[in-house]
Design a protein that fits this description.
It is built from 7 helices and 7 strands. It has 2 domains: 48 residues; 178 residues, 3-Layer(aba) Sandwich (Rossmann fold). A 7-stranded mixed β-sheet has the order 3-2-1-4-5-7-6, with helices on both faces. The termini are far apart. 39% of the residues lie in helices and 19% in strands. It is globular, with a radius of gyration of 28 Å. By secondary structure, the protein is an alpha/beta fold.
């Protein structure tokens, strides 16, 4: 062991202390630089246009997609209150047509559309909830609905085949779409010439499982659609409006 003089011990202590201080300054400088980088990235990300990932801040309030008991959609007098046959008439859903039930839930509308289009038509039941898709799949087998296909969609893309449908119905689901304009633009590729898109919903602020129909008309216009029909006979079922759109 080497014995240090008091002078040597003092110089060694100052060296160690200086090293600690320099190291601490470096750590703080690195942390400040990283924080500055994060701020820049956050600012740049906020300024970027919608990229279709579904992760950005929503343009307006939206409701959390329903994931509860699917049997609540199956109450006995719903056909009469919603006048679903009249809805299908206005959407041009006739034998041999292809129909998309977007946000199909329990498949309540899917079943009725399936009977309407018959064996020469097709109904695509789409939902972003895997449980709903499984539920509809079992229902299709149980009720022997050979003209129904199920599709697990994404939050911003229903993932329908190109040129696959003559009519679309979105029943109590539009207010749940976080990025409605890009989503409805994506839907265009699935529409056949003259296809109609029906939206049935209630008025609200977006976060209360409803959305004012003026907002729907505005957003659909931005997505490239024109309003061709406005009805309110769905009010008996608690739905304030039934809007029909076509591509411009």
């Amino acid at each position: 062991m080497i014995a240090l003089t008091s002078s040597s011990r003092s110089r060694l202590s100052r060296f160690i202390l200086g090293s600690i201080l320099v190291g601490g300054c470096c750590v703080r400088a690195q942390a400040q630089a990283e924080e500055g980088t994060k701020r820049v990235l956050n600012r740049v990300t906020a300024e970027l246009p919608y990229s279709g990932t579904g992760q950005e801040t929503t343009q307006r309030p939206t409701s959390t997609p329903y994931s509860g008991d699917l049997s609540i959609f199956e109450y006995p007098d719903r056909d009469k209150k919603l006048q679903i046959d009249r809805v299908m008439d206005l959407l041009g859903i006739t034998p041999g047509k292809n129909v998309a039930d977007i946000g199909a839930g329990s498949g309540w509308f899917t079943v009725r559309a399936s009977r309407r289009v018959g064996p020469t038509g097709v109904v695509i039941a789409e939902d972003i909830n895997p449980i709903a898709i499984e539920y509809i799949g079992k229902r299709v087998l149980k009720e022997n609905l050979t003209n129904v296909r199920t599709v697990l969609g994404g939050p911003d893309d229903p993932r329908l085949p190109a040129g696959s449908v003559d009519a679309v119905l979105m029943l109590k689901v539009y207010h749940e779409i976080a990025h409605p304009v890009p989503t409805m633009k994506v839907l265009q590729k699935a529409l056949r010439p003259g296809a109609k898109v029906g939206i049935i919903d209630r008025n609200g602020n977006g976060s209360d499982h409803g959305l004012n129909h003026e907002v729907v008309v505005k957003e659909m216009g931005e997505a490239g659609y024109k309003l061709v029909g406005t009805y309110d006979f769905t009010k008996a079922d608690g739905q304030d409006y039934f809007l029909i759109f076509e591509l411009r």
